[in-house]
């Protein structure tokens, strides 16, 4: 896994929202309009939209970039949690049906009677165009994970203009394939985009690997010219409920309802202004002045809720389909051997008081999470083992667990005094005199993060575990805590923390192949457990609904990371009268669903 890949995954999951908690100087400006046909929406602080192409590359996977692109180009199969339950949103999808073969080795998709904004029909050829581009440029695609899409798709066959079949390399769990693989597909206007230069002629260039690479280069080059988005005809052929009116390099975006849209999510509000802010404080000031219709406040500002409701706002926490955690570096040459001991990880987890952190640090806007499946929403995926918290908070029991395994508290810190591999000794590779002292490189610029780290430090100290904190911007945290081997100089990190507002946002089906499988693309700490690998494989291939729960239970007990409370995605502040939706726990926004009721 390369460093850019790691950055991309976190950008789409945590970076944009971690900026919500940063307090800096500066601000953005809002526009005002007729509230029956216009809305001003505040983007997360320090987020500058920088991509329009509905194919994300490594530097452009931010969830807000994706939401903007999907307003212009609808997904083949869109998943949405804004209905209160994460499910296939057929109203916002180009496909109307997905019929899997009896052997689960292929699927035939049916397209709706849909058209591009220039009147051309959306056909199987437009899906094939996306398929060919991704197949030829998989390693440059931001959502690529080796062995998964498109590697596990062996062929694309157009049956007719509205039906096509994708064949897989083996049988897969249908829910996983639909939600976590096929949902990536976005039909692209082949009749307008299948060329290798702006002056070129549209051909079938994508049908050869060389041609597909040239088309990819042309599209990505055009997408890099933000100043040209308004004028470039390339971005005028759209399928979604909105088109682009303006897109500035400063990050202000204006969307206008697409009058040619013929899908199921026709826009009710004509104009959507997406407003950038350099700080959360500047955005809060815009809310106070009434210049923003849909914004946010920090969890630490919840005691000021009445001041916003008095101005005609509603305050509504936005929960995320996410987990928050700190990965151990199992390959650290000094502490790696300690981290390899399950009892040691148990002692650490028993020293984390998630309920108190949720209450005190997050003002009650975080959910205690005890395993790899999000717990802020009801689902059938969480095992009873995870729900019941296998390692309840108790620094007294945590300390006793360490002393029963050969550790003695000296000067307030546990030290290995009985090395060896028996059940009462420190464990394989743990040398006599090793201090149980960890250091974390954590996100800077967030008061909430700082408060949480200080609370964890105090709690671990009671157990006898040292915990030193160093902070850096998220980009530096990512670059300084890479996946590594013990002989590399970059492997001197113990723990990494890259944002309080959700470490990892899942697709609809919350499996762990990227996070916790051996060699996974986002397995930052090099965790490896063959039993867990087999359970993860079962979640993607088994038709047994219990497979995900089995995985949930095993990973909750084995502790590949330090589980932490999962905060809400944001604390939304919305003008009264803005209706038509719940907030999407997948962290997307859907302006076509918004309505003014008065």
TrEMBL record:
Residues 1-30 form the signal peptide. It is found in: Cell envelope. Residues 95-520 form the Solute-binding protein family domain. PROSITE patterns: PROKAR_LIPOPROTEIN. CDD domains: PBP2_thermophilic_Hb8_like (cd08513). It comes from the Bacteria. Coiled coil: none annotated. InterPro entries: Peptide/Ni-bd, SBP_5, SBP_5_dom. Keywords: Signal, Transport. Belongs to the bacterial solute-binding protein 5 family. This is Peptide/nickel transport system substrate-binding protein.
């Amino acid at each position: 896994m390369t460093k850019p890949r790691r950055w991309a995954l976190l950008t789409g999951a945590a970076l944009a929202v971690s900026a919500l908690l940063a307090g800096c100087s500066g601000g953005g400006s809002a526009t005002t309009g007729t509230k029956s046909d216009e809305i001003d929406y505040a983007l997360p602080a320090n987020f500058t939209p920088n991509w329009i192409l509905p194919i994300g590359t490594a530097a452009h996977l931010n969830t807000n970039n994706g939401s903007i692109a999907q307003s212009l180009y609808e997904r083949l199969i869109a998943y949405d949690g804004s209905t209160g339950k994460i499910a296939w949103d057929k109203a916002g999808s180009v496909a109307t049906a997905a019929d899997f073969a009896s052997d689960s080795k292929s699927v035939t998709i049916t397209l709706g009677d849909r058209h591009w904004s220039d009147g051309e029909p959306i056909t199987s050829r437009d899906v094939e165009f996306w398929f060919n581009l991704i197949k030829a440029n998989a390693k440059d695609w931001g959502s690529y994970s080796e062995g998964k899409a498109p590697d596990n798709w062996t062929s694309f066959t157009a049956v007719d203009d509205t039906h096509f079949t994708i064949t897989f390399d083996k049988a897969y769990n249908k829910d996983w394939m639909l939600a976590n693989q096929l949902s990536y597909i976005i039909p692209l206007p082949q009749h307008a985009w299948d060329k290798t230069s702006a002056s070129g002629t549209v051909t079938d260039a994508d049908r050869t690997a060389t041609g597909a690479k040239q088309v990819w280069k042309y599209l990505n080059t055009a997408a890099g010219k933000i100043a040209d988005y308004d004028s470039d005809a390339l971005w005028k052929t759209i399928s979604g409920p909105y088109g682009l009116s303006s897109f500035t390099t400063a990050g202000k975006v204006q969307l206008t309802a697409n009058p040619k849209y013929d899908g199921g999510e026709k826009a009710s509000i004509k104009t959507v202004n997406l407003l950038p802010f350099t700080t959360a404080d500047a955005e809060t000031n815009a809310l106070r002045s009434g210049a923003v219709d849909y914004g946010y406040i920090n969890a630490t500002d919840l005691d000021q809720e009445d001041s916003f409701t008095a101005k005609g706002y509603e305050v509504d926490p936005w929960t995320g389909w996410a987990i928050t955690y700190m990965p151990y570096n199992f390959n650290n040459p000094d502490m790696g051997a300690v981290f390899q001991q399950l009892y040691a990880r148990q002692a650490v987890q028993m020293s984390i008081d998630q309920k108190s952190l949720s209450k005190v640090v997050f003002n009650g806007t975080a959910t205690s999470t005890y395993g790899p499946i999000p717990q802020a929403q009801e689902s059938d995926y969480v095992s009873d083992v995870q729900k019941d918290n296998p390692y309840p908070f108790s620094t007294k029991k945590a300390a006793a667990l360490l002393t029963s395994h050969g550790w003695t508290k000296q000067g307030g810190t546990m030290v290995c005094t009985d090395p060896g591999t028996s059940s009462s000794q420190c464990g394989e590779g743990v040398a006599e005199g090793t201090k149980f002292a960890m250091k974390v490189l954590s996100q800077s610029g967030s008061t909430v993060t700082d408060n949480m780290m200080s609370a964890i430090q105090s709690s671990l100290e009671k157990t006898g575990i040292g915990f030193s904190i160093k902070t850096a911007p998220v980009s530096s945290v990512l670059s300084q805590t890479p996946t590594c081997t013990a002989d590399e100089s970059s492997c001197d990190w113990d723990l990494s923390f890259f944002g309080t507002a959700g470490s990892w946002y899942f697709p609809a089906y919350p499996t762990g192949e990227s996070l916790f499988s051996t060699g996974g693309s986002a397995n930052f700490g090099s965790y490896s457990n063959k039993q867990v690998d087999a359970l993860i494989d079962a979640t993607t291939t088994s038709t047994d609904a219990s497979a995900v729960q089995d995985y949930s239970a095993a990973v909750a007990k084995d502790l590949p990371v330090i589980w932490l409370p999962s905060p809400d995605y944001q604390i939304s502040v919305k003008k009264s009268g803005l209706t038509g939706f719940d907030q999407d726990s997948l962290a997307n926004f859907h302006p076509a669903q918004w309505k003014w009721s008065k």
